[in-house]
Amino acid sequence: MAAVAVYHVEDGPVDGPAVVLASSLGTTWAMWEPQLPALAGRFRVIRYDHRGHGRSPVPPGPYRIDDLGTDLLALLDRLGLDRAHICGISLGGMVAMWLAAHAPDRVDRLALLSTSARLGPPEGWAQRAATVRAEGTAAVADTVVQRWFTPEFAAGHQELVQRHRDMIAATPAAGYAACCAAIEHMNLEPDLSRITAPTLVVVGAEDPAAPPEHAERIAAALPGARLEVLAGTSHLSSVSAADLVNPLLVEFLTAPRD
Fold first, then answer.
1. How many domains are there within the chain?
2. At a CB cut-off of 8 Å and minimum separation 6, what does 92 contact?
3. For residue 3, is it within any domain?
């Protein structure tokens, strides 16, 4: 499938080092708002919507992770970026790994949050896609958002949780289902050995969607990768634990080269 021109927004100095932020399934570029105070002062921050999400096109599905990765590569080309730091969460982390494996010369540093190289089980993603195609994304929004935040965090941040629930429900059903297919068929584990970028792997200790063992497998496959497990944190760590994630990202992205 040919690449599509995904929607993106930019913040920060245009001449700063470029950082591309790739979102989770069912969210838009807006999910990265908590990172702007930490990043936009020194980096050219580029946030975008995956195909099938937000303001990006919704080509016919199903999609494969290669399709989403090719979209990201095309975005770098369109912006004239030979290299960039890539930070992805969940589905965005999968896309980031694909890019780092298949176009290693384009990735400076790689930050992977709450993600997996092989998530499974496939039948669960097939069933979720079928539900969304039949009933819309609102049918899964409540269940999904419960997996993004711990009960304790959700109880104290009801408006924020509702905002992310509404983000899921607003995602085009066809695009969401097609991206479910990408996760259903994805196996990036054989590709990990091709990744050469310095890598930071972050996971919430209480993440039920991409549990810590998935992050541990990624980190173990990448020589020199740094693994950080965040206590008391669930899946959408960039939102619920921004106070922990942001300093990790800044330190990682600004550290001197060995």
1. 1
2. 21, 22, 23, 24, 50, 115
3. no
Kindly state whether residue 1 falls inside one of the protein's structural domains: no
Diameter of the chain measured on Cα atoms: 52
Q: What pLDDT digit, counting tens, does each position of 80-95 carry?
A: 999 999 999 999 999 9
Let me know if residue 203 belongs to a domain: yes
Q: Of 64, 126, 109, 59, nearest to 91 (Cα)?
A: 64
Which token pair is 181?
């297919």
Residues 8 and 47: beta-carbon distance below 8 Å = yes
Q: Output the pTM of the full model.
A: 0.97
Task: Please answer whether residues 194 and 101 qualify as being in contact, where contact means their C-beta atoms are separated by less than 8 angstroms.
Answer: yes
The CATH number of residue 58's host domain is: 3.40.50.1820
| Each residue's pLDDT tens digit, 24-45 | 999 999 999 999 999 999 999 9
Q: Token digits for 68?
A: 């989403």
> CA–CA separation, 182 vs 174, rounded Å?
13
Q: Is residue 48 part of a domain?
A: yes
CA atoms within 13 A on the CB side of 171: 35
Rounded to whole angstroms, what are the CA distances from 133 to 23, 52, 110, 146, 194? 21, 13, 33, 21, 35
Q: Closest Cα partner for 57 from 5, 12, 109? A: 5
